[in-house]
Structures are given as structure tokens and as C-alpha cells.
Fold this sequence. Notes:
The protein is an alpha+beta fold and 337 residues long. It is 39% helix and 21% strand. The protein is built from seven helices and seven strands; from the N terminus they run H-H-E-E-H-H-H-H-H-E-E-E-E-E. The strands form two sheets. Strands 3, 4, 5, 6 and 7 form a five-stranded antiparallel sheet that branches. A two-stranded antiparallel sheet has the order 1-2. The longest helix has 30 residues, at 69-98.
Amino acid sequence: MNLSSQRKCLDIAGRVATHSCSLSRTWSSTLVVQHRCYAAAAQKTKEKIPVASAAPPSTSRKAGKAVTPQQAAKDDVAAERSLEDDIKSIEAMQRMSETNQFDLSSVPLELLDVHVPTWRSHKENASFADHLRAITQTLRNSFLNAQSLYRMAKHRSIPGVKPKSPWSWQLFSTQSTKSTAWLSPFRQAALEAYKQVNEAIAARDEKTVKAVSVGEQQSYYMKLLRSQDPRYINVWKFHGERTPCRVVSIRANEAYYGAKPPRIGSRLAVQAVVRFDTLQGVETYSKKTGVRVRETEPKPVVEYLVFQKRMWNDSPWVIRDRLYEGLELRATLPHHI
């Protein structure tokens, strides 16, 4: 493989690694091209740049400057080493991809077209067309919820559940709060993560916040954490749920593009919107004396948080975004359903 082809492969790899896509079709087509470049590079025999056998002239011109024969020879050696380094880098990336040590699929994922369903438009002076659009988006969300649950069941990627068949009435149970629903174990995990992140923010526990959140939501949590008065210690209090937390929207797309299947889990990346309706408060203590100086009354708080997990990683669900009822979709709709 010549130097031009090698650099072309590296350029493709660089562009893919720095530009993640929200659409499964774009993910697939781009990374398959990149993988082929890696595979082609790994199968080629290393080639060296031939050095001209003719004796170089006493001086030559390069970028308007005189170059001695010794300098020209050094430049040739440097170019040869650069080519070999490029080949070695591609081969190393291919080996790491095969052993799951390196994965371009681990680049940050865009927010998918998850949606907070509503049967009417929340716009001021909403027209009939606005209400019709809200109903259409809610119906579409229900269909995509069922489609995503089918994918997860087919790939055995539903947390804590191993369905006998992907075809089940459970495909239409996304928003169910019953203990027998497929997403019941996930709802429990989401509630624990929700309580964990709120306790960590009050306690200024940056390590825990970083472990259970990513992206913009992590930045928001860190801002809250660092804005607290260091003279006081805050304790977040959970007073229970007014209504059980429930999943209102879920999307599952293939996002793992290694040459071989992942060692654990599946190729799916899942994002789910969970609605929390809780009673919570905060107690504040003096850091110097330990005396409680303030206590808030339990207040109702309703939040829609987006949880995310790469199903091929043995890692917990993380909070990546916050949505609001009545807002238009933040993500670009896919070209196909």
C-alpha cells in the first residue's frame, strides 16, 4: 500500500472518530468504510519507499532553499520511518479492535429522537395543527418504543430479563409500572441512580457524579455541586415517590462496529427517558459546629431524565440529558423508522 492510500485511511479514521452521528444508518455506513480500510492495511505487506540509486546532485532546491545531499538522505529516511509508523499504527488499531481494547464506537453518542409524549400542544395559543402534531409525535413514539424493545429482546439486551421470544405483548409495556414488565429492573436501577446523583451533588461528591452522568448533564451537575457555600454541609433527603417512575420513551440502535461481536452484551446502544415524580428536600448543617441551620419542607419535583448505556460494556446506566414536557424534539429525526 502506498503512502497516499495509507494517509487516506488515516484521514477517514480521524473524521469518524471526531464526528459521531445520531442516526444508526450514518453510524453503520461510515464505520464500515473505516473498518475496511483497517482490514486492508493489516493484510498488506509492509513496503518501503525506494531510494533513488542515482547519486544526488551536490545541491538541490526544496521550498526555495538549498538542500545538501546529507540533508536529502535524512529527509528520505524520515519519510520512510513515517510510512512505517503509519502502517504500525493501523495494525495496532486493528489488533486492539479485535480484542475490544480500542473501539471507535466509544465516541460520544448524539441524543437520539427520544420524546416526552403528550396528547396536546403546550404552545401558547396552539392551533389545531399544533395539537395534531403533538398527537402524531406521541403515536410515533409508541411505535418506536415497541420497535426498540423488540430489538433489545432479540439481542437479549433487556436488563435483568431474558425473554423467551421477542414477540410478546410486553413490546407495548414501555410505560408500565408493573413488577412483571420487561423494563421493571431498569426502572429500579434508574431510581437508584437518580437518588445517588442527588445525594452526591449535595455532598459535593464529584467522583460519584462523574460515575453516574455524562455530557451536558454532568456539566450541569458539576456546576450545581461547585456553587454551594463551603461553610455548610448539605444533605439531600428523599421522601418517596408521588407516582412510580416510568419509562416514557426508549430507543435502541446498533452502535458497536468491531470486526467481531462484543465479548459481552450486544451491539446496541440504548437511550431511555424516565419520568420521576418525587418528594424531596435538603437539610443544611454548619460545617464548623455541626448544628442544623436549615431544613426545607418536602417539595414535589418532576423530572424527565435521559439514561444511556452501551450494552457491550459492563458499566452502569448513566444520565446524559434532561428533557421537558411540551418542547419540540431536540434530536434530528432519522431518515427511516
